[in-house]
Amino acid sequence: MAKIQMKTPLVEMDGDEMTRVIWKMIKDILITPFVDLKSEYYDLGLEYRNETNDQVTIDSAEATKKYGVAVKCATITPNAARMTEYNLKEMWKSPNGTIRAMLDGTVFRTPIIVKGITPYIPTWTKPITIARHAYGDVYKNTEMQVKQGSKCELVCTDESGNETRELIYNFSDSDGIIQGLHNKDKSIASFARSCFNFALDTKQDIWFATKDTISKKYDHRFKDIFAEIYESEYKERFEAAGIEYFYTLIDDAVARVIRSNGGYIWACKNYDGDVMSDMVATAYGSLAMMTSVLVSPDGVYEYEAAHGTVQRHYYKHLKGERTSTNSVATIFAWSGALRKRGEMDNLPELMDYADKLEKATIQTIEEGVMTGDLAALSSIENKQSVDTETFLVEIGKRLKLLVEGN
Ligand code: NAP
Ligand code: MG
Q1: What atom in ligand 1 is closest to the CA of residue 310?
Q2: Residue 375 CB–ligand 1 contact under 6 Å
Q3: Domains, the chain, ranges and CATH?
Q4: Predicted confidence (pLDDT) per residue in 77-110, tens digit
Q5: C-beta separation of 283 from 120 below 8 A
Q6: Which residues, at least 6 apart from 24, have a Cβ–Cβ distance to it below 8 Å?
């Protein structure tokens, strides 16, 4: 069979540990036998990041801006232990943080749903995608412990030196704590555009919620910016696509989410997104079944798995022991990126291949062949827990049949 041809290269960001091992297996077993893969390869493995003083991360983000689509493997974010383990020159920053900042993007996380694994909330039959605004608020705060008798004020000095003051609190009867937060209109607007673009892209409704009844200036500004951008830039396209944007109070959103069937995007402020994405991931069953895509406001996409490098499995692998590492989220990163590449380059065959790759993956699990983490959750009878490579080979067999049209 002739391999599927590509036009523009896909930016490929390799990574670390067990996910690096899986990365190569996915390419060898599921991609290159079917697609004449055109990729621009960047090695974001920690050793090469260290060798290049992290320049390779910056180069890979620049290439993503140039070509529009990237697929990324999980990477180590160095900490003190990694400094010695890899003999690092510096504690390099998280590649995800660097790439996100350069693309000014928003991260969308979506669970992959399969029969046999029931979410803890059984009515969630469709995925809930969480979009987290990854800038500012409590993550860039300034805080103080203050002594009794202190008077605390918010002071803003404008360009010409004029001061505006607001009393925070007079600590007349107790010691206490204060905190200063900020966000930028520019960042909120980028967040809104990424959200609206992603909703149009995936033809799903989008919900946004804050506590604007209590926070009449701060949270209210988020609400207003979303409303202004929606009205002036997206309303018509949403109506044409038959999808909806709606704003509600965060308390109401939580109640609606619990009662819903899924199938929409929930846009969250930074802290809400941090907390809610962990809640949603847990409720759907497994972090290894969460895909993630970074979307920039000007339509650049970077696909990856939500989980890390699965270090414990890697050490077993190095000792020659059997591993049963779940490759589903990484496979979906590849299928997502290839489908988007196909869409941008008008290559229906490539988009069709991406659909089949996902279908073969889900079919394999629903036929009872899965990795250990899923076998522990699945209610399917006669399920079989297989090793890392066998799982991919089993997907490959089904994919071949689908591609050959059987
Ligand atoms: P992790 O790699 O996600 O793994 C945590 C645990 O979750 C694993 O030990 C494993 O549990 C389970 N797990 C996660 N993914 C799995 C999969 N695909 N198949 C089977 N089980 C899976 O998180 P971590 O151990 O906290 O972090 C390891 C490294 O990854 C760190 O260096 C961190 O910096 C990095 N990290 C990178 C990213 C990223 O690049 N996006 C994200 C998060 C973390 P059992 O051991 O019980 O089997
Ligand atoms: Mg969290």
Answers
A1: 2
A2: no
A3: 1-112+298-406 (3.40.718.10), 118-140+182-284 (3.40.718.10), 142-180 (no CATH)
A4: 999 999 999 999 999 999 998 998 898 889 999 9
A5: yes
A6: none
